[in-house]
Amino acid sequence: MSSLRASSSKLVWVAALVVSLMALCEAQLSHNYYDKTCPQVLPTVKKATGAAIAREHRMAASLLRLHFHDCFVQVQQLPDTSVDKISRQWRRCGPGVVSCADILAIVARDSSVYVGGPSWKVKLGRRDSTTANKDLAEQNLPIAFDDLDTLTSVFARQGLSLKDMVVLSGSHTIGLAQCATFRGRIYNETNIDAGFARTRQRRCPPTAGNGDTNLAPLDLVTPGSFDNNYYKNLLSSLFCVDICVHTQMDESECWQICQGCDASILLTDAAGIVSEQNARQNFRSARGYEVVDKIKSAVEKVCPGVVSCADILAIVARDSSVYVGGPSWKVKLGRRDSTTANKDLAEQNLPIAFDDLDTLTSVFARQGLSLKDMVVLSGSHTIGLAQCATFRGRIYNETNIDAGFARTRQRRCPPTAGNGDTNLAPLDLVTPGSFDNNYYKNLLSKKGLLHSDQLLFNGGSTDATVVAYSKDQAAFFADFAAAMVKMGDISPLTGSAGEVRKVCSVVN
Length: 508
Ligand code: HEM
Known about the structure:
Elements: H1 2-7, H2 11-16, H3 41-55, H4 59-71, E1 76-77, H5 83-93, H6 100-114, H7 134-140, H8 148-156, H9 162-169, E2 176-178, H10 179-188, H11 194-201, E3 215-217, H12 229-235, E4 255-256, H13 289-302, H14 309-323, H15 343-349, H16 357-365, H17 371-378, E5 385-387, H18 388-397, H19 403-410, E6 424-426, H20 438-444, H21 451-454, H22 463-471, H23 473-488
Antiparallel strand pairs: 1-4, 2-3, 5-6
Helix pairs in contact: 3-13, 3-14, 4-14, 10-11, 11-16, 18-19, 20-22, 22-23
């Protein structure tokens, strides 16, 4: 507890942080991004994608899924944006003039602006202390477990009103918190959305000492941008009173969160990189990496160093859909590639076939995707295959399944774990190789393969959308195309953030 207090000493600053030297993850994508720099990109990708799908038809499904699994994940840590570094730079341009205290104040304002938050005129003229006081820090800084009276007096002691406290806590629209700071809330409190609690429990085990430092975004909807979603979350009991007000931020104290389409999934294990390919949802499941490498090298031949791997994934997803009879859409471009990956966040953010509907809903909501987006994007399961281990529970234990269908699937998927786990079955039993609306028709007759598929038609709020798509393929196609564009917009790195990787599996 005391370390929490001590480490929170940068209350407001931590919220904003030091993104000011960096370009950000604001979406600024456009359809004509490569018109001048690489006009051949679209035909080149299309040809190489077509060749891969011609070699193996399933590759269309695998490539489409890769874009999805890329877009839902990424934390970009900016270790080189520490206050110390900025301070050093300032000293260079004006030795001995600007105090570190003033730098903190300016950096907080600039950080807010860079992530889409408000700006203000910073009053200057602070001087730096010549000492520090850990005890006083512990005494004066609020703690996530404090009650409202304590929090109020902690702020009042600094001349800040209740309203000030509420509005400054809005800083939690950005940033991350460690499991230890919100464990009590997600396991014991009642004023919390059940689906949200379950989602957070996935990466925050119940007993102290386990996963204590695992991170979760403070604002689950738009963790990378400064907006009022923090307050919306509170209305839906998504977050605690003030949880994690002052959580430990790592020594760099600097985070920029960009959850998005940044090709982080393509990076393999390397120094400082724990590959997302080994995350539970991707391990021995996501595929097509070498195909993307090939497509990238075809693009590198025509315009070296120009087209990002993240953009290639987005184009390839569209082309794959078209190749197997699905809809087309105009792909927005201009994404840049991450220089890091985050396996933990992948496990936290990607849906799991056994999740319940509330959890799935919040997994998508966290990315700004609606329930309808979730239903229509799940229509991707009109193509591709799944492994026995992912649907065993459904075909042996569930009741909302057609008995004949369950028996058919049981033939190649034995009941005990460890047997035939990797045996494959088509996600759409009728037309597994082509992109159509049979997926939804299957759900109507209780022939969804995954637990998460059938949940979409199980007497709940998504039933009507499933029925609509089962009757109207054109509507499904139009909505799917729009949702893919929306998914492709999830917090990309743009401008000078990240890089354009030369080889998609390694950073430059
Ligand atoms: C609703 C939440 C979702 C869950 C729980 C889920 C889960 C799964 C699982 C368990 C598999 C089989 C993996 C394996 O056995 O190796 C799979 C396959 C697939 N998923 Fe999803 N998925 C979801 C949403 C989506 C979305 C939104 C897309 C695309 C936009 C997508 C595209 C695909 C494709 C194309 C395949 C087949 C891949 C292949 O054959 O290689 N899924 N999904």
